[in-house]
Amino acid sequence: MPILRTERLEKTFDTSGADTSVVAVRDVNLDVEAGEFLAITGASGSGKSTLLHMLGGITRPSGGRVLLEGVDLASLGDDDLAAIRRRRIGFVFQRYNLLPELTLLENVALPLVLDGRNAAAADAAARESLAAVGMDHRASHRPDELSGGEQQRGAIARALVTSPAIVLADEPTGALDSANSARVVELLQRLVAERRQTVIMVTHDATVAAAAGRVVKMRDGRVAYDSASVEVPVS
Amino acid sequence: MRLRSLLVRQWRSRPGRALAAAASVAVAVGAVVSTWTAADASRAGYRKLTEAVAGVPSIDVTARDGGRFDATLVPRLVDVTGVRAVVPLFYRPTLLRVGDNRLREVAVGVDAGALVSAGLMTLTAGEPCLEFDEVVLDATLAKGLGVNVGDEVLFFARRRIARMTVTGLADTDSLRWFAEGATVVVDIQVLEAMSLSTVEVDRVRVALTADADRERARLAVAERLPEPLAAEVPVGRASMADDVLHSANLGLDFVTSLTLAMSWFIVGNAMLMNVAERRRGLSLVRLLGATGRQVRRLVMVEAAVLGGAGAVVGAGLGLAAAGPIAAGISKALHADATALITPPLLLPTAIVMGVAVAVAAAWWPAREATSVDLLEGLSAAPPPPPQRSARMLLVAAGVMTVLTAIAEVLMAYGLLPPRASVVSGIALLLAFVAVTPFLLIPLVRLLGRLVPSRWRVEGALAVEQIARRPIRTALTAGVLVVAVSNGIGLGHAIRDSVDDVLNWYGKMLKADWVLTQAGALSVTREERGADSRRMEDEVRKVDGVAAVEGISLATGRAAGMACVIIARDLPPEGPLPLEPVDADEPQVRQALERGEAVAGTVLAQRTGVKPGDDLAVEVFGRTVTVKVAALVVDYTSGGASLQFERAAANRLFGMEAADVLLVTAADGKAASLGEPLKAIAVEHTMLLRSFAEVRRFIDNLVSGVVGSLWSILGLGFVVGSLGVANTVTMSVLEKKRSLGLLRAVGMNRRQVIRMVVLESLLLGAGAGIVGLVAGLSTALFIQFASQPLLGHPLQMRIRMGVVAANLAAALLVAAVAAWLPARRAVRLDVLESLSAE
Ligand SMILES: Nc1ncnc2c1ncn2[C@@H]1O[C@H](COP(=O)(O)OP(=O)(O)OP(=O)(O)O)[C@@H](O)[C@H]1O
Ligand SMILES: [Mg+2]
Q1: Are strands B161-170 and B152-156 parallel, antiparallel or unpaired?
Q2: Of the ligands numbered here, which is closest to the C-alpha atom of A23?
Q3: Is the same domain home to B446 and B302?
């Protein structure tokens, strides 16, 4: 069974003011297996982020469904959805990843605290996770004291701290120089290799996408290309 | 780390926001505590004032036929709820000889010992009269005669001439309550014996406790009385004071309720803002897996903690402020500042309310923030104008308006007490607040055009900031509207009702000198008519007197209701001393001369009498049917009056003696009349007062009451200003990041400050205009509401002073409250402000 499956997934935005509505994602059918490292690419505005948001249950689809570990996200109430986000999904965003008031350690521990884990256990797990991304020496710093790449690694540490079934990352390298983005990509690759972690990453950087085992390309809200389904044409 | 500590971190990183939220609760709780205490002090002061002017609240037991009656007919009354003492009164005109002076006086027989010990008669010197040959004299009279305690006077009674010793002197004010013009106090049995009448009394006065419900007590007393006796509220006593105080009490209710409503509104507002501005942060916590419930709980805990801390501080501040304010009010009301009493439940109630309102106000935006789509919550763009809330607001405004209208109609028909107007007045104000968001943005755009062109950029940005943040704008404006309308509405209402009383007084009392019977009510008719005519002639003959108007007063009944009958000479030319309602003066004058009556509006309101109706009027036991020609505004006896032309009243009821003489001097002669009039006054046992004295008395009374209202209104003003300052500060603090961005793109510090201040000024002006309309409506509303109380509409005028003061204050507070935090915000370097969430 695929760890993640989408069926005829669709998202339409009713733009307030303008009377046209925007179809951001239409008819997306994807199967993602456990341990896969999937890159979603495509032009700006092609619907990558919207798709990722629906996969993570951050926004509800206008049509079709998302099955995470066989569970239809649309069938869940708010609380159950929150629990799924907390335990089974790790997010890495391009922006607003870390709460500015909290230290890096506290940021990483937050999902566990929200889950009711006791403070000491949460801290220990957070440290471990930070060590995995090589950020444990900056644990007590606040986000605005860190560089963009460091913040991004911190965000990955937070995404991993709950040992989620799947990590969703939206342009994790978007704001980074090539050296730093290489480090982040390496980190993700290592996760997939060592922990059999499933990762879905949105990027418009071809070199970053090349690091993934599978590439899906979006155009106008549809999947235009999927490296997994491309077979050698039989003549 | 625990989830709670996330809160602490947030407070630490945004101390301004947390402080402002807590401060709003402190302001509200402080306002509640101090306003309440001040209002209590005012009410206590009013009560004392009423007692000082109108005497102890009381009920009279009289014979239905107007004559004397057997005192043994009166059952035991002291155990009726609210009764303080039962005082049988027996009046007797008498002749007194003191040295060479022969005086015509009225003697009153009472149980002097009991009166003194009940605190109803105050002796300035000596002892109460108890024995056969003892007498107590009015202190003023005694002073005029040069009589002291221990002196002897000759008392000419029907049976004999008694030589009596003056055992004490009674304070004139304390005498006024029961003596009705009598200046000589004798034991009741002594006076009866000397008058050859046993156990007869003129009336039994039942003194009530200060807090007794007069009407309930009257009914309870009436129930026990045998058929020939009636219980009624004594009329005609200086009850103008009563009325000033009655409307003052209503005003007080309005002022306190509006201040309280405003306080809670400010709290709600601050908490709403506190949470609404953090939508993004809360969404991020949700994104990381917090459930909606966890986020809501977090927000509520925060509200409870901030609310609790604010409430405790506010209670302390309120208590500290209450003392001086209450003392000031007591002083303005000439009441001795008794120990400041804070009701025991006030503090805990205020604190609990503070926390409860804070939590309730936080709950709503927390629910909003946790029920929106996460993606929406995370967007940096301002939250979209909530269509649903907009509709809800409009519906709420509609409902409030309709409720207010219904309440108003019910009140007009007497189905709801006038006090209900306080609640519906607040509903009306809330309706205004609800429509503010819809009016404000177009208004601000309009006002934006007035910004000088050299500040065009800042002005345009300011307008956009206001327009793009509809929720923040609506909340800030809401507080401004409430504060401005509170000030304008109540300012007008207070000035209007005071002017109404003063106008009436000015019309009714135009004279240079006023001669009155000390208590101003005809006790007996015998002999007085002729004496009175003689005195009037003497006054007329005094050199320099231009005109003399006599006024005769009596108690009577019309349509079963006790009322005061006023009979007065009409000035041959010039305006009538009356304020007819919907009738023209010449016709009213003719009707009065024909012997018709004009009825006070309150009497008309209570009895349903209309102009043109015939009315059975009973005076001195004689019933006559008269026609009501018109209605007039009158404050005498609360407007429950029936007025006649004096000659007509004499014909109809035999009311001849003048109880009040108004003397107008020829030009420039006013001062020279003092001496001769004084002589006449002494001879005829009248009290002479110059108009200035009368005026001073009234002005004192009115200014005391007005002063107390103003000081509470001032308190409301301070609360409003603090609320506005708080809200504006909060909203500037929230803008730190956008301000940093503006500077990053090239605005200098001065421009940024100017923009923020302009924004606040535009908002203040827009909200000020809405508040002005709301305030004038409130004033109009209070006016309607007082109609059932006064029986006539108050004249309302737009008072530029009140309006200007309120608008200027609103603008000033808005500008300063924006300037201070803006100055601080731009001191940060650009990077720092950009990193602010
Ligand atoms: N909240 C929204 N309201 C209206 N339209 C939206 C909204 N979010 C996205 N869109 C539109 O949906 C389409 C897809 O947006 P999306 O953010 O998914 O693109 P993207 O592929 O992530 O682009 P980029 O590479 O620039 O991040 C775009 O045309 C965008 O304008
Ligand atoms: Mg995107």
Answers
A1: antiparallel
A2: 1
A3: yes
Q: Which residues pair with residue B496 across a beta bridge? A: none
CATH T-level assignment (fold) for domain A4-226: Rossmann fold (3.40.50)
Percent of chain B with pLDDT over 90: 2
pLDDT band at A233 (very low <50, low <70, confident <90, very high): very low
- How many residues are recorded in chain A? 235
* Segment B650-674, tens digit of pLDDT: 888 877 777 788 888 888 877 888 8
B43, B147: one domain: no
Domain boundaries, chain A: 4-226
Domain boundary pick from B623, B652, B684: B684
Residue B750 lies in a domain: yes
In the block, tokens 């409870």 appear at B304
Residue B767: inside a domain, yes or no? yes
Angle, in degrees to the nearest 10, between helices B240-276 and B470-508? 170
The predicted complex's ipTM stands at: 0.74
Q: Give the 3-state secondary structure of residue B200.
A: strand
Residue A222 pLDDT: 92
Mean pLDDT of A148-171: 88
Evaluate whether residue B693 is within a structural domain: no
Total tally of structural domains belonging to chain B: 3
Which range has the top average pLDDT, A10-14, B570-574, B689-693, B775-779? A10-14
Domain that residue B201 falls in: 58-236
Q: Which has the minimum average pLDDT: B86-95, B362-371, B378-387?
A: B378-387
> How far apart are the CA of A233 and the nearest CA of chain B, in angstroms?
41
- Shared-domain flag, residues B227 and B245: no
Do A100 and B1 count as a contact with CB atoms less than 8 A apart?
Answer: no
Q: Looking at the structure, do residues B14 and B73 belong to the same domain, yes or no?
A: no
Mean pLDDT of A167-194: 85
Which residue's alpha carbon is at the smallest distance from atom 14 of ligand 1?
A: A47
Pocket residue to mutate for ligand 1, from A22, A94, A95, A168, most atoms within 8 A of Cβ: A22
Strand boundaries in A69-173, DSSP class E: 71-72, 89-92, 166-170
B428 and B369 housed in the same domain = yes
- Residues B260 and B403 grouped into a single domain: yes
The answer to whether residues B630 and B744 belong to one domain is no
User: How many helices (H) and strands (E) would you count in chain B?
Assistant: 26, 22
Q: Is the pLDDT of residue B33 over 90?
A: no
Which residues from A are below 8 Å from B when comparing CB atoms? 16, 53, 58-60, 78-79, 82-83, 85-87, 91, 96, 99-102, 106, 109-111, 113-115, 119, 122-123, 144, 158, 162
- Alpha-carbon dihedral of residues B752, B753, B755, B761, nearest 10 degrees? 170
Q: What is the pTM of this model?
A: 0.68
Same domain, B412 and B354: yes
More confident position, A26 or A100: A26
Q: Give the burial string for B590-612 (b: 16+ CB within 10 Å, else e).
A: ebbeebbbbbbbbbbbbbebebe
